[in-house]
Design a protein that fits this description.
Elements lengths: L9 H18 L14 E3 H4 L5 E6 L6 E6 L2 E6 L3 E4 L6 E7 L7 E6 L8 E4 L7 E4 L10 E4 L7 E5 L1 E5 L7 E4 L5 E6 L7 E5 L2 E5 L7 E2 L7 E6 L5 E5 L3 E5 L7 E4 L5 E9 L2 E11 L4 E7 L7 E2 L4
Antiparallel strand pairs: 1-5, 2-3, 3-4, 4-5, 6-7, 7-8, 8-9, 10-11, 11-12, 12-13, 14-15, 15-16, 16-17, 18-19, 19-20, 20-21, 22-23, 23-24, 24-25
Length: about 300
């Protein structure tokens, strides 16, 4: 993944390039971190950050004090004290991961099995312990690195495998829509309309009102956006390099800066508590140190602490 900004001068340009190189290292399948030993069944987030990659996060709708953390070596349940336990029966690589917006037992994923090849589109109906392939996807088996379920219509699911794909029947059948915006990093489906998508890309934040067939800039600043996420309440969040965490209430076009206080870290994944939208959880990454972390906010993203901190 390479981030490139033509207009950023001097030190800002150098900082963006460092982030680009770091994200490229994080995305590389052949990196030393990926080839480290698989995570143990019982561990901590801090220990996991040293030996696996974090690919997605969600709040367990049955228990707001419990998170799902999708990794290169399986799915883990994480508690707010920073402790973690593997809940998936296998240590598959869940490159794409998202929770069903209304059924707390249903989770969706894509990626690679331990044995290699691609998983296709898979689902769990027991909270992440066991998984079943619902579909190979269009031209699959697919390996969706970006995917999301529409909160407006949970039967509508989007994934990216070369082109944007869409399912209208809960992931059983898929059709290709068209190419994603250049340099796609993250994809998020609207809470208001099943045909509306947001995209975080190397060239900025984009929005589509026609299921991904065409795209328009969603923010006037064209800087790399590493994350975009829509809450159950319909608020859109995005992280923009050099700007910080942004929020647009009710998916409006009015983006406000929520926090610029993450230092050199960028947010790669975000999840909001469906019962309390001010409680946010994020996977962060530092391009200079290549350090990952899971952080929590109790004030809608204005301030953050690492999981396990007092």
């Amino acid at each position: 993944m390479r981030l490139h900004i033509q207009s950023a001068p001097g030190a800002r340009m150098r900082a963006f390039r460092r982030i680009a190189i770091g994200l490229a290292g994080l995305a590389a399948v052949a990196s030393p971190l990926v080839h480290a030993a698989a995570a143990s069944a019982e561990t901590t987030v801090a220990a996991m950050a040293e030996r696996t990659h974090f690919h997605g996060i969600a709040v367990d709708a049955r228990d707001s004090a419990r998170l799902f953390l999708a990794t290169h070596h399986g799915l883990f349940a994480v508690t707010l004290d920073g402790k973690a336990i593997q809940i998936s029966a296998t240590a598959d690589d869940y490159m794409g991961f998202t929770a069903h917006p209304s059924d707390p037992l249903v989770l969706y994923a894509s990626g690679h099995p331990e044995s290699g090849d691609n998983l296709g589109f898979i689902a769990s109906t027991d909270g992440g312990r066991t998984w079943t392939r619902l579909s190979a996807g269009a031209g699959g088996p697919v390996d969706f690195h970006q995917m999301d379920v529409s909160k407006a219509d949970p039967n509508v699911i989007y994934g990216v495998f070369g082109n944007i794909q869409r399912s209208d029947d809960g992931g059983r059948n898929w059709r290709e829509i068209g190419p994603p915006p250049e340099g796609l990093i993250r994809l998020a489906a609207s809470r208001r309309d099943a045909n509306t998508l947001f995209a975080a890309t190397q060239k900025g934040l984009f929005k589509s009102a026609d299921a991904g067939r065409s795209w328009q800039l969603a923010h006037i600043v064209s800087r790399p956006a590493t994350m975009v996420y829509v809450t159950h309440a319909g608020d859109a969040y995005a992280f923009m390099v050099g700007t910080g965490l942004l929020r647009a209430k009710d998916e409006s076009a009015n983006w406000e800066i929520v926090s610029a206080g993450l230092g050199r870290d960028v947010i790669l994944h975000l999840a909001a508590d469906p019962k309390d939208g001010r409680r946010l959880y994020a996977v962060t990454y530092n391009a200079q140190t290549r350090a990952q972390a899971v952080v929590a906010s109790r004030d809608g993203g204005a301030s953050w602490i690492r999981l396990g901190s007092p």
